[in-house]
Amino acid sequence: MATLILLLQLLILLIPSSLPQNLHPSDLTALLSIKATLTDLSPTNPFFSTWNLTAPDPCSSFAGLTCTLHRVTALSLGGTSFPLAGTLPSSLSLLTDLTQLLLSPGLVTGPIPLQLAQLTNLRVLSLPSNRLTGPIPTALSTLRRLHTLDLSCNQLSGSVPPTLTDLPQLKILILASNSLSGTLPKTVNSPLLHLDLKDNKITGPLPLSLPSSLRYLSLSQNLMWGPLPNGLQLLSELAFLDLSMNRFSGPMPAQLFSLPALSNIFLQRNNLSGGLGSGPRTGPVPGSIVDLSHNSLSGELSSVLEGVESLFLNNNRFAGEVPEAYVKSVWRGSTRLLYLQHNYLTGIPLREGVVLPDAASLCVSYNCMVPPPAVVMTCPASAGGVVTRPAAQCSVFSHYGG
Fold first, then answer.
1. From which residue to which does the signal peptide run (predicted)?
2. Which residues pair with 321 in a beta bridge?
3. What is the dihedral of CA 22, 27, 32, 33, to 10 degrees?
C-alpha cells in the first residue's frame, strides 16, 4: 500500500496540468488510492462514475465528497444502489481534515486500517454491514473527538478495547452482530446515549457502572452471566433495555420497572429468579413491551406491570391468582397482549360471559387451573395443546413452595 501511495504522489507531481488544482495534494492522493482499492459492484450505475480526475473541482462533482477550503471533511463511500467490494486503504489517513467517514453496506473485506487513528478530527466512523475482519484497533481509542462509532454486522473478532468506552465525546457505540468475545470493562465512562453489542460472544458480567445518559442498551444474544447490577435502576434516561438470551441470574433490581422513560424491556431466556417487586406504577404506556418469559421468576404476580401494551410473563414459576388489574387493563384495551402460559397460576378473575376486545390476546393455558373458554383461543401455537398443567405438578410445586 505504501508503494501505491508513492506512485500516486509521483503521478500528481509529474502531470499536474491534467489533475484538479483546487484540492489539497494529499487529499487527492487518498482519493486516487480509494478508487484503486475499492471496486464498484453496480453494473449500471457505479459509484465511482463521477470520480473523473479531469474534473476541475472534485469537491462539487465527486459523489460522496464534502469539502471545506479545498480539504475533504466528509466522505461517504457507496450507497444503497452502489455496493462496493475490495479493501479500505491505509491512505485514508491522508484526509487529515476528515470529520465523517461512512461506508455503505457492501462486500468490503480485510481489517480496519490502523492508520484511521491518525484522523484526529474524526467525529463519525461508520462501516456497517460489510465483511471486515480482525480486531477493533485499540488505536481508535485515541480519537478524542469521536461521537459515533458503528462497526456492526461485520466479522470482527477479539475483545472490545477497554479504553474505547473512555472516549470523552462518544455518544453512539454500535458493535452488534460480529464475533467479539472477552469481557466488558467494569466502568463505562463515555457519555453514551446508545450502546448496542448484541449478537456477539461477549462473556462475563454487566459493567457495574454505566453512564446516566444512556437511553438505549442492548447486549442480547451473548454469553454474559452474573446478577443484574443495581446500577441499572439509576439510569433515569433509559428507554430501551435488551439483555435477553444470556445467562444472567438472580433477582431483578427492585426499582427497574419504575424508571420513568423505560418502555421496552427484554430480559427473556435468562436464569433470573425472584419476584416482580411492587414499585410505583407509571400507568399505560402506548407501544410498551416487557418480555420476562423463559426465566425462573416466582411468587405471586404484582400489578407493577399493569398497562404494559405487550406483556410476556410466560414460562416462569408464578403462582397464585392473576391480578384483577391485569385483566381490567386487557378489557380496557391498554394491554393488547398478556401471555401467562406455562406457570403455576391458580385462578383468573374473569367473569363468565365477559367479552374481551377483538385485538386482545390473553393466554393462561398450562397453569394450575382450567382456563376460561374466552382466552383459550388467543394462545400462540407455542403454548401447546394441553390447556391445564397436570395436577401432580401443581401439588408438588405447592408443597415445596415452587
1. 1-20
2. 347
3. 180
In Å, how far are 264, 265, 349, 378, 387 from 340, measured between CA atoms? 18, 17, 14, 12, 12
Residue indicated by cell numbers 470520480 = 51
Q: Mention every residue, 6+ apart, whose C-beta is less than 8 A from residue 235.
A: 210, 212, 214, 217, 259
pTM reported for the whole predicted model: 0.92
User: pLDDT by residue for the chain (402 residues), tens digit each?
Assistant: 555 444 444 444 444 445 555 789 999 999 999 999 999 998 888 999 999 877 888 999 999 999 999 999 999 999 888 899 999 999 999 999 999 999 999 999 999 999 999 999 999 999 999 999 999 999 999 999 999 999 999 999 999 999 999 999 999 999 999 999 999 999 999 999 999 999 999 999 999 999 999 999 999 999 999 999 999 999 999 999 999 999 999 999 989 999 999 999 999 999 999 999 876 665 667 899 999 999 999 999 999 999 999 999 999 999 999 999 999 999 899 999 999 999 999 999 987 767 788 889 999 999 999 887 767 678 899 988 888 999 999 988 876 665
DSSP 152-200: -SSEEEEEPPGGGGG-TT--EEE--SSEEES---SB--S--SEEE--SS
What cell was used for 240? 430501551
In the chain, the amino acid numbered 41 is L
Phi, psi of 28 (to 5 degrees): -65, -40
For residue 132, CA distances in Å to 74, 77, 103, 119 come to: 21, 15, 11, 19
Alpha carbon distance 290, 80 (integer Å): 34
Contact 296, 272 (CB under 8 A): yes
